[in-house]
Amino acid sequence: MARQKKPADAVQFTRESAERVARVVRAAELTPAAGSPLTFDKRFPERIPKQVRAATFTGAWPIGSTKVVTFKHEPTATVNAVNLSWPITLGGYVNENCLVGREGTNWWLVAPVLESRDAVFVSVTKSDEYVYKVEVDKDTINYLSDVAITATLNTADCTISVSTAKTVDTKDFVISVAAGKKTAIFIVDSYTSAFLRVRVP
Length: 201
Hints:
Layout: H1 15-30, E1 50-57, E2 66-71, E3 78-82, E4 96-103, E5 106-112, E6 114-154, E7 159-198
C-alpha cells in the first residue's frame, strides 16, 4: 500500500514537468507589461486640522481686533486670536470665558459668553400725520366789569350827592389758530420675544 503524501512533504517534479514550468515562467517574463498600474490622485487637498479650545480674555475686544487669550486649563499658555464678528466694546470684562478655534496656525474667536433678554418687537406699523405745533394769534380788550354807586344826604340843605366807581378789566381773545403737521410711523401691534446678546460686564 502506497504512503499518502503529507502537506510538509517536498514537491517532486519529473524532468518533463520541470521543463514545462520553466517554459511558462520564461514566456511570462518576456511578455511586455500591459500598462502602468492604476493610480488614484487625491480629489480634494489635504484638510487643514482644526481645533476648538476654551479660553479667557480681559478688556474690550472690538470686531477686527486681535487679543491675547489664555487657555482656560493652561494658565501659562496664550495665543493671539482675532475677533471677526462679536461687538465686545466695553472694557469691564475680566477673565471672561470664550471659545477660540484654530485653522492652520491662525486662531479666531468662535463665541463669547451670551445671555438671554426679553424685548418688545414691533409687528405692525402705520404711517399717519400728527400735529406738532399750534400757533395762536390773540388780541387784548378792556371792558367795564363793575360799577359801584354811592349816595350821600346832606341834612343841612337837603341835597343828595351821588358818586360812581367804575372797575375796568382786561381779557385776551383769539384771533386765529394755525397748526403744523408731520408724518410719523406709529406702532399698531407688538409682541414679546427673547434674544441673545454679549454678556454685559
